[in-house]
Design brief:
about 25% strand, 2 domains, globular, single chain, FAD/NAD(P)-binding domain, binds flavin-adenine dinucleotide, 6-stranded mixed beta sheet, alpha/beta
């Protein structure tokens, strides 16, 4: 590679691939992003836009998210799209006394990491958010939780990458790889062969399948989330909301089956409420189901009664890239010397995209990162090699 600028091929035009492409291109790297449909065609275009710190596991997950939040502030003016980043503050609504006691521990652990978060009783919560049901037990409140328009964010990263001379190939599916020894040398696509010095797998819920085409096993699988959108209303909420059950369901699939999946609610700049969302293992099926949408509306109405008289104008579903430990896979792989993973952000990819883009670009271009990526090593799972690479 001496004497020429390495050509970096990023697979997947979701928020993660586009964020990485933008960061790399800004530093004059030679980048081609390969997307089978269009940017934001995957989960990044079928999700909420919560940049919610309180839903991150206290520990490295929350530390990573707090770094990302810091970067969001500066991002707004630097992308060619209005990403509608609003630091509204967030509430984790607590419905029962038992949940309240469980949240006390969770909030203390978050405070220990430096997150500004406080438990509120029922009256304090209703003072902040009068539209909530009088039956709630309270809430955890953080002034730093925020929201963003996830589609504008993804398209903004993509347009910013293009402005910095990245090539973006749309409607181009990655079908296979060529390799020599422990190096991938080219990516085979539906539009021909793309030579590569470095490959980054950002294929979202399909990242496990793309890894398989290189003969690797990475346990990233789709976890469906359904969302219902109401008609636009006058401002009803000042904060973005999730419920304590939602946090529990995120990290514990078994609990999600028995205790319900909880809710998330955000009001967009246009006034629509996004009501979410289910957490289901349904393969790559992005259909909505009557049961899924009914369950979201029933659970939301119990917390936010105004929803009972609202019209649902549309529904959609996206596929979260799920990993068994709830953390993304970020870093080099042991099977190849020039392949990196950046996938598996589950329900946090929008929130974590700025920091993922920054740290992955540092890793690829400088060989080191300002925050250690070791806990996110793709090799932390018991991977087996020997798949169907060409
Ligand atoms: C209902 C729901 C609500 C959510 N709410 C939030 C939230 O509030 N906050 C938050 O932070 N996160 C949220 N998420 C999670 C977030 O959407 C994801 O973590 C994030 O979008 C993942 O981004 P990605 O780039 O990894 O994947 P994707 O956006 O899915 O992008 C992957 C891309 O790879 C492409 N691709 C796949 N295979 C190939 C191939 N072989 N060749 C070429 N291209 C390929 C796909 O077409 C796709 O465009 C939510 C998700 C859902 C489903």
């Amino acid at each position: 590679m001496t004497g020429h600028t390495p050509h970096i091929v990023v697979i997947g035009g979701g928020v993660i691939g586009c964020a990485i492409a933008w960061h790399l291109a800004k530093r004059d790297a030679r980048v081609t992003l390969v997307e089978q449909k269009d940017p934001a065609a995957g989960s990044s275009g079928a999700c909420d836009g919560l940049v919610f710190m309180q839903s991150k596991k206290p520990g490295i997950h929350l530390t990573l998210a707090m770094k990302s939040l810091e970067l969001f502030g500066a991002l707004s003016g630097r992308l060619p799209f209005d990403i509608e980043f609003r630091q509204t503050g967030g509430l984790v609504v607590i419905e029962t006394d038992a949940e309240y006691r469980a949240m006390e521990k969770y909030v203390t652990a978050q405070q220990d990491i430096g997150l500004p978060v406080h438990l509120l009783d029922r009256n304090q919560t209703l003072e902040r958010e009068p539209a909530l049901s009088k039956n709630i037990a309270g809430a955890a409140w953080s002034p730093v939780d925020a929201q963003v328009n996830p589609i504008n964010l993804t398209l903004g990263f993509a347009a910013g990458a293009r402005q910095n001379h990245a090539r973006i190939l749309t409607h181009t599916e990655v079908l296979g790889f060529r390799h020599q020894g422990n190096r991938v040398t080219a990516v085979e696509t539906s539009q021909g062969t793309v030579e590569a010095d470095i490959v980054v797998n950002c294929a979202g819920a399909a990242a496990g399948m793309v890894s398989k085409r290189m003969g690797m096993h990475h346990p990233v699988t789709p976890r469906r989330g359904q969302i219902a959108v109401t008609h636009a209303t006058a401002p009803l909420l000042t904060h973005c909301l999730i419920s304590a059950k939602y946090v529990a369901a995120k990290f514990d699939p078994a609990l999600a089956q028995t205790a319900g999946q909880g809710i998330s609610v955000e009001q967009t700049d246009n006034g629509n409420l996004l009501l979410g969302s289910t957490r289901e293992f349904a393969g790559f099926d992005t259909a909505n189901t009557i049961e899924g949408i009914r369950s979201i509306i029933r659970q939301t109405a119990a917390v936010l009664p105004a929803v009972k008289s609202m019209d649902i104008i549309r529904t959609f579903a996206g596929l979260r890239p799920y990993t068994p430990d709830g953390l993304p896979l970020l870093g080099p792989v042991r099977e190849y010397s020039n392949v990196f993973m950046a996938a598996g952000h589950e329900g946090d990819g929008i929130a974590l995209s700025p920091v993922t883009g920054l740290l992955m670009s540092e890793l690829i271009l400088d060989g080191k990162t300002q925050l250690s990526l070791n806990p996110f090593s793709p090799d932390r799972f018991n991977t087996v090699t020997g798949g169907d690479h060409a």
